[in-house]
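Milestone 3.1: sequence recovery, worked example.
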């Protein structure tokens, strides 16, 4: 099989020109994943946390969508590839990978990966940064309380998901918006001048005030159920159209 995914995580110093906006050189994926707190008891640890996480990242990039597929992916590698992933002599079995991945702090892992991806971008930042906020139910992911529903913040200029928040069971995306906004602000160093685009569900006064207070702009569809916000529009409607407009805050 191709070793291109393994090459991505080799711990080699990047070229001097590969820097972040703050002037810091980007690090290899293994080095970055080592920053994730290890939830295990130090006694009896057999496999480096960064190596197991790197296996999961690369396997998912290769199309794996289950724990079993992740384990199959690492089993298919040769000894040389195992060594480059940080394993010595043996690799973890399915149950070991599962027990570790379900205990890792998902928010921290998302932040570490987002920062790593952003560090590898060489293009200058856009004149105006636009962040698309959208929620999706994760296919095939089920918890005892129900299916996994994530609210994500996607940087349209770089293609990087800056942050993700799990929507609580028996709730909706509205309460998850503020925590997601906090994570985005942490990734970008603030929201000044940033445009947040969301669907009509997030046409909420509290959302608009929070974004405006941070110096950003909220771009949402204002529908007829938001009478106080929606400006009057007497223009004739075409067949099948509904009255709605875009609101800038």
């Amino acid at each position: 099989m191709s070793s291109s995914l393994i090459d991505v995580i080799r711990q080699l110093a990047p070229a001097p020109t590969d820097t972040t906006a703050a002037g810091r050189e980007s690090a290899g994926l293994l080095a970055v994943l080592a920053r994730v707190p290890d939830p295990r008891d130090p006694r009896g640890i057999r496999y480096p946390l960064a190596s197991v996480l790197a296996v999961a990242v690369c396997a998912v990039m290769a199309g794996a969508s289950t724990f079993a597929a992740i384990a199959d992916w690492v089993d298919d590698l040769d000894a040389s590839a195992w060594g480059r992933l940080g394993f010595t002599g043996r690799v973890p079995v399915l149950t070991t990978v599962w027990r570790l991945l379900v205990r890792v702090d998902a928010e921290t892992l998302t932040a570490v990966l987002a920062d790593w991806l952003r560090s590898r971008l060489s293009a200058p930042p856009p004149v105006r940064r636009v962040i698309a906020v959208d929620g999706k139910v994760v296919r095939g992911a089920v918890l005892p309380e129900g299916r996994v529903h994530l609210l994500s913040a996607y940087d349209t200029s770089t293609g990087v998901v800056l942050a993700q928040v799990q929507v609580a069971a028996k709730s909706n995306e509205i309460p998850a918006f503020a925590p997601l906004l906090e994570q985005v602000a942490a990734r970008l160093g603030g929201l000044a001048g940033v445009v947040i685009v969301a669907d009509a569900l997030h046409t909420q006064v509290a959302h608009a005030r929070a974004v405006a207070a941070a110096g950003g702009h909220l771009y949402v569809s204002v529908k007829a159920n938001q009478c106080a916000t929606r400006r009057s529009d007497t223009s004739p409607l075409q067949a099948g159209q509904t009255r709605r407009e875009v609101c800038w805050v």
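Residues 1-26, 242-249 have pLDDT under 50 and may be disordered. Strands lie at 130-143, 146-155, 160-166, 195-197, 217-222, 245-248.
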